[in-house]
């Protein structure tokens, strides 16, 4: 088997947030190890397959099915911070609601969404 190399994850640290580095490292390790396990990948063919998996399938999974919450407003009232969040939406829903896409791009995205709905039903 092998170990997960920790030196790869240390490059992601934020230099002013020394307490947040462990949280960032743990989050990245948890996400990676949840899908791939605690193995060392020495074979370049496996690395190429994993990169393809992340570029195609996993990114589509996160963009179409995992909603996220956006922070709209943050107000400080004495020592407390009151935060106001938007309704949970997937990145796909946010993209379709924005004015960044042309009509042709929106048609393609809607066709892709229909395919995912069919897959989700089955």
TrEMBL record:
Protein name, as recorded: Uncharacterized protein
- The species this protein belongs to is Legionella norrlandica
């Amino acid at each position: 088997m092998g170990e997960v190399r920790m030196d790869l994850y240390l490059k992601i640290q934020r230099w002013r947030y020394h307490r947040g580095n462990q949280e960032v490292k743990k989050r990245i390790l948890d996400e990676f190890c949840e899908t791939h396990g605690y193995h060392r990948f020495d074979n370049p063919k496996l690395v190429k397959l994993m990169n393809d998996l992340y570029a195609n399938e996993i990114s589509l999974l996160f963009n179409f099915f995992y909603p996220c919450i956006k922070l709209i407003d943050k107000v400080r009232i004495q020592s407390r911070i009151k935060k106001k969040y938007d309704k949970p939406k997937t990145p796909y829903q946010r993209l379709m609601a924005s004015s960044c896409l042309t009509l042709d791009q929106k048609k393609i995205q809607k066709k892709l969404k229909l395919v995912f709905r069919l897959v989700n039903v089955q």
